[in-house]
């Protein structure tokens, strides 16, 4: 498995749309499977945009398994960066508050929906 580098694009030639699905083939069972896009790039799979995943055709006699696919990917690297930034902000505030106290037992802090130990 490889890492995903930024926004993944459709594997179809001359298509530059954002990928929302992964197409994989099982040649032995004659099955094509379309799944939601994952964070890691799997070898021997194809990333497809919404348009190409909806118009997918398989060879005659093959079965196709389609898992529920959203029109937009669930999260991107930018989304995770924003979450990490928010968590760091909560942790920094907690460190400043605790620097005046010497507390051996970590206390659960809460800010909105974020929690930090």
Given the C-alpha coordinates, what overall shape results? Answer: elongated
Tally the beta strands: 6
Q: Which band does the percent of strand residues land in?
A: 15-25%
Radius of gyration over C-alpha positions, nearest whole angstrom: 21 Å
Topology pattern, helix = H, strand = E = EEEHEHEE
Q: What's the pLDDT, averaged over the residues?
A: 76
- Widest β-sheet, arrangement of strands: 3-1-2-4
Low-pLDDT sequence parts: none
Major sheet description: 4 strands, mixed
Distance between the termini: 32 Å
The structure class reads alpha+beta
Q: How many individual helices? A: 2
**Helix percentage:** 10-25%
Write down the domain tally: 2
What does this 3D model show about the protein?
With 117 residues, the chain is α+β, with helices and mostly antiparallel strands. It folds into 2 domains: 1-72, no CATH class; 77-116. It is 23% helix and 21% strand. It has 2 helices and 6 strands. It has helices spanning 50-54, 77-98; strands spanning 21-26, 31-36, 46-48, 63-66, 109-111, 114-116. The protein is elongated. The model has no long low-confidence stretch (mean pLDDT 76).
């Amino acid at each position: 498995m490889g890492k995903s580098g930024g926004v993944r694009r459709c594997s179809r030639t001359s298509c530059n749309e954002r990928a929302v699905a992964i197409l994989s083939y099982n040649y032995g069972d004659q099955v094509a499977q379309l799944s939601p896009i994952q964070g890691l790039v799997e070898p021997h799979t194809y990333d497809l945009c919404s348009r190409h995943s909806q118009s997918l055709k398989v060879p005659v006699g093959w079965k196709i398994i389609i898992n529920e696919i959203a029109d937009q990917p669930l999260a991107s690297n930018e989304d995770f960066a924003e979450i990490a930034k928010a968590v760091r902000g909560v942790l920094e505030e907690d460190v400043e508050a605790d620097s005046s106290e010497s507390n051996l037992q970590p206390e659960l802090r809460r800010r909105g929906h974020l929690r930090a130990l």
